[in-house]
Amino acid sequence: MPLAPFLPRPSSLLPLTLLSLGLVAFGAEAQPSLSVQPGTAKPGDPILITVRGVDGQPSGTVAGRTLRFFEAAGAWQALTGLPVEQAVGSAAVKVEGPRQRDGSAVNLVGTLDVVDPGYPERQLQVAGKYIKPPQSVKTRMAEDRAAFAAAFSQDFGPLRFERNFAWPRQDRITAPFGDRRSFNGKLQSQHFGTDIDGDTGDTIYAANDGEVVMSRDCYSSGNTVIIHHGAGLYTTYFHMSRIDVKPGTKVKQGQKLGLVGKTGRVTGPHLHWGVKVDGLWVDGLSLLKLDFFGTPEPRVATATPDTAQPAPALTGGELSAPVSTSTTP
Ligand SMILES: [Zn+2]
Asked: Ligand 1 centre from 12 Cα, in Å?
């Protein structure tokens, strides 16, 4: 459900009660409205903007980032994120709609509260070869980065799913999103995903419907699958021991993608689950809380776990990729 409704700035002659009376169905103009999820965000959160009651495609910004709107379920929506560097405090949400049939301008404004994420810092000691990889490894990592960039360049398109997101597997979280890592005393990377524990051979499921846009053996992220869910929203699955899908495969939520493994630069088997939207890595746990459809739904599916709040812990995990900022596993 929309969590933070904002009213339009210009006055409208239509009272709010028209909405609840259902007069929209008889052709009356709905009052333009804006909702922002989540109501309170932290740096690194995905942001879902929903605009209703406007005559055409709106435009707007969140914290200065330009929004790209798409049509969804009788409304206009846009997806973006707050960068992990976003300042704590408030962020402006501004939406402008096309002039209404009655000639009135539509300017919807709101303020998003941005709270301290409290991302923990981990000190890791690693061998020098991981800090300064040899040329052969650098070449391979550059190829991987190019493959990631190509995968993340899909046609924008509408949303390709009809339900909210679900966990790709159910287990303990061993490293949360945002965990800051310093190697040998120097801060070098941030953890842009959620590590979910598992044993080699455990099943990994698609978190939602979409199209597989990459399946590749990468140096740092190991066997990697990327799914595009439409509108520039992607989920990524790292370190798999086996991949059961190919680029171009259309997957449904809960469909098996492959198996948990420890491929790539890791210390043990787990699933690193990543989410990218509008070019930003964002927190998958926050994506799971977004309601795209305005209706509560039972979170039960044949193959999709429904873990409520696994206790974050800082054990196990991977060695990360201190020389790569774009594909940090
Ligand atoms: Zn990870």
From this structure: 49
Strand partners, 211: 228, 250
Q: Which of 238, 250, 230 is nearest to 195 (CA)?
A: 238
Compute the distance from residue 317 Cα to the ligand 1 centre, in Å. Answer: 6
pLDDT at position 260? 98
3-state secondary structure of 143: helix
Q: How many CB atoms lie within 10 A of CB 16?
A: 11
Whole-Å CA distances, 28 to 16, 98, 259 = 12, 17, 52
- Report the candidate in 267, 216, 268, 209 with the shortest Cα–Cα distance to residue 237: 216
Residue 175 Cα, ligand 1 centroid: separation in angstroms? 7
User: How far, in whole angstroms, is CA 151 from its chain's centroid?
Assistant: 15
Closest C-alpha among 26, 27, 76 to residue 49 = 76
What pairs with residue 177 in β-bridges? Answer: none
Sign of CA dihedral 197, 199, 205, 206: positive
Strands 69-72 and 65-66: unpaired
* Residue spans of alpha helices (H) in the chain: 17-21, 128-131, 135-151, 284-289
- CATH 2.70.70.10 given to domain 121-289: yes
Which of these, 44, 219, 61, 227, lies nearest to 141 by C-alpha position?
219
CA–CA separation, 194 and 176 (whole Å)? 5
Query: Is pLDDT of 215 > 90?
Result: yes
Residue 29 confidence class, pLDDT cut points 50, 70, 90: low
What residues does each domain of the chain span? 5-114, 121-289
Contact 227, 187 (CB under 8 A): no
Q: 194: CA distance to ligand 1 center in Å? A: 6
Architecture of domain 5-114: Sandwich (2.60)
Ligand 1 centroid from CA 318, angstroms: 6
Scanning the structure block, which residue is given the tokens 């509260």?
113
277 Cα: distance to centroid of ligand 1 (angstroms): 18
Report cis status (omega within 30 of 0) of the bond before 296: no
pTM of the complete model: 0.81
Contact 54, 73 (CB under 8 A): no
